[in-house]
């Protein structure tokens, strides 16, 4: 799917969500918040980077069809230096593994506008979940289970 098409879809979904017409299931798995000693580390150019990985799946019924988007963020930190990479996947709804290798055939090209819309949707859904509006469920997975 092209970024512009997905961006337009997300614009519609954000509007429908604000009207209370979509029910969302979010699932999150992240190493953020773990002790540095528990995180994966990589060495590049003599620098030791602590690695955080964050998967977030967005699922809803949209136009009476299952709609699934999984985001992946790879975050390297060393002191106050941070480097991030983002990947997007749109697998069939039966594939809900938080594994880049399994998801790789379903990668979606992203641009800054698309990433912004996903962030807008995420912010909207987290606010709705916080306010317990009944349209958003959140499940958090332990990254080591």
Explain this structure to me?
It is a single chain. This protein has 145 residues and is of the alpha+beta class. It has helices spanning 3-18, 100-103, 112-130; strands at residues 24-30, 40-44, 47-62, 65-78, 81-89, 107-108, 136-141.
Ordered list of secondary-structure elements with their pairings:
Layout: H1 3-18, E1 24-30, E2 40-44, E3 47-62, E4 65-78, E5 81-89, H2 100-103, E6 107-108, H3 112-130, E7 136-141
Parallel strand pairs: 1-7
Antiparallel strand pairs: 1-3, 2-3, 3-4, 4-5, 5-6
Summarize the structure.
The protein is 27% helix and 41% strand. It has 145 residues and is of the alpha+beta class.
Shape designation: globular
- SS element count, helices: 3
Oligomer: single chain
Separation of termini? 32 Å
- Low-confidence parts, pLDDT < 50 over ≥5 residues? none
Number of strands: 7
Helix content: 25-40%
* Helix and strand run: HEEEEEHEHE
Largest sheet: 7 strands, mixed
Radius of gyration: 16 Å
Residues in β-strands, percent:
35-45%
| Structural class by secondary-structure content | alpha+beta
Whole-number average pLDDT? 94
Task: Give me some keywords for this one.
145 residues, alpha+beta, seven-stranded mixed beta sheet, 3 helices, 27% helix, 41% strand, globular
């Amino acid at each position: 799917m092209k970024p512009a098409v997905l961006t337009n879809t997300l614009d519609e979904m954000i509007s429908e969500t604000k009207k209370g017409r979509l029910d969302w299931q979010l699932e999150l798995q992240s190493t953020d918040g773990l002790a540095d000693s528990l995180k994966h580390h990589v060495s590049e150019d003599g620098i030791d980077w602590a690695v955080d990985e964050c998967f977030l799946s967005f699922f809803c019924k949209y136009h009476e069809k299952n709609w699934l988007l999984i985001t992946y963020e790879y975050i390297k930190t060393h002191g106050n230096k941070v480097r991030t990479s983002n990947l997007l996947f749109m697998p069939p709804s039966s594939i809900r593994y938080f594994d880049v290798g399994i998801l790789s055939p379903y990668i979606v090209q992203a641009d800054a506008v698309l990433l912004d819309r996903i962030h807008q949707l995420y912010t909207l859904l987290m606010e709705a979940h916080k306010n317990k509006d009944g349209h958003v469920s959140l499940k958090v997975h332990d990254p080591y289970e």
